Amino acid sequence: MKPLTITSRLEVYETIEEIPQDVQDLMHQAIEVRDNAYAPYSNFKVGAAILLDNQEVVVGSNQENASYPSGLCAERTAVYAAGARFPNSKILKIAISAKSLRHKVVSPVPPCGACRQALVEYEVKQEEAIELYFMGETGKVVKAESIKDLLPLVFDNSCL
Ligand code: THU
User: Fold this and answer.
1) CA triplet 31, 130, 20: central angle to 5 degrees?
2) Could you report the per-residue pLDDT of 6-56, keeping only the tens digit for each?
3) For FRET with 124, which of 63, 132, 148, 153 sits at 20 to 30 Å CA-CA?
4) Residue 17 has what pLDDT?
């Protein structure tokens, strides 16, 4: 038996004002689009903003459905829109913000496992890491240099 130790290094910023200006702008776009979430079942609204290497920003918000599994998270709404609109552009950064209509979300909200898997596909495709920043409604912002920092032992095309 040989142990396998997995480590990830994330950065934690105390407030949105501490992150670089370009990411603050991206996060504000995520916050703005969060209001477009259609979340009558969870009352939990998420916004995501993606910066591409052509300097375009593609946004997404969660869209729910009476048939619950038919809904989609903000991150996948955004990343699939980016892939559909700009298939040859690389994704540089993604900013995510979440808000509940029931309580103040003060802790950073990371993307769910399915969104991590969807996002990492584009890192593999573009052969370049995607920087990820996530937060709640207020408070700390967490940065990951790569989706893989949130998804070790990734399942990708090399497994097939
Ligand atoms: N949600 C997202 O949009 N992104 C995530 O990464 C986690 C969850 C949405 C899905 C659902 O509409 C609501 O938040 C509650 O789970």
Assistant:
1) 55
2) 999 999 999 999 999 999 999 999 999 999 999 999 999 999 999 999 999
3) 63
4) 97
Total domains in the chain come to 1
Active site residue 75: yes
Is residue 8 one of the residues assigned to a domain?
A: no
User: For atom 1 of ligand 1, which residue has the closest CA?
Assistant: 73
Q: pLDDT, tens digit, for every residue of 84-100?
A: 999 999 999 999 999 99
In the reported structure, the alpha carbon of residue 2 is separated from the centroid of ligand 1 by a whole-number distance in angstroms of 37
DSSP state of 90: P
Q: Is 154 left (phi over 0), alpha (psi -120 to 50) or beta?
A: beta
Strand partners, 48: 60, 96
For the domain that residue 120 is a member of, what is the CATH number?
A: 3.40.140.10
Task: Catalytic residue, from 75, 127, 137, 145: name it.
Answer: 75
Question: Is 1 a member of any domain?
Answer: no
Structural domain boundaries enclosing 68: 18-151
